[in-house]
Known about the structure:
This protein is mainly α. Helix content is 54%, strand content 7%. Strand 2 and strand 3 (33-36) form a beta hairpin. The chain is flat. The termini are close together.
Amino acid sequence: MPRVHFVKKAMKDNVAVKKGEPYYWWEFRFGGKHYSATPPKQSQLTQSEFLSTVYDLNDRLDSLTADDFSDLGFQLQDIADEFRSQAEECESKKSNMPDSLQESPTGNLLEERACACNDIADSLENIDCEVDESEWEQEVKDELGETATPEEIEEEIESRRIEKMDELISEAQTYQYDGE
């Protein structure tokens, strides 16, 4: 991974900023200089197409937000599909290698990557985003008692909704690619 440099004030305009503005730059051994006004993402600091893609997927998991449970389910399925696609690509690359190289370190790396991506996809697909909020209403009414106002009941249901959403998002964020 390249070393990232931070410059407090640009001496002249560059592709990322105007003169006087702060910026980051880094360069690969064989790849030219890269500039950014913001700190680079992990996916920008690799020349591996696979790692760049899975690091982007990790970033998507880290910044996961949703308005409702079905939206969260769609997002998780989309990310799982992309992890599965990466696994298929690794499997395809390995199967396209000559038989004598399939058991080489490179072949083993491709197999490990495929297994890891499939495991992550399976885990994300197993997160149950089918939440029946109708059960909460009766539970809340029983807990708060007969003196509870409709506003108090709705407030408690919303609190449970947020808590469950945060729980599901936190669970999803634990499934990330951390291999090589």
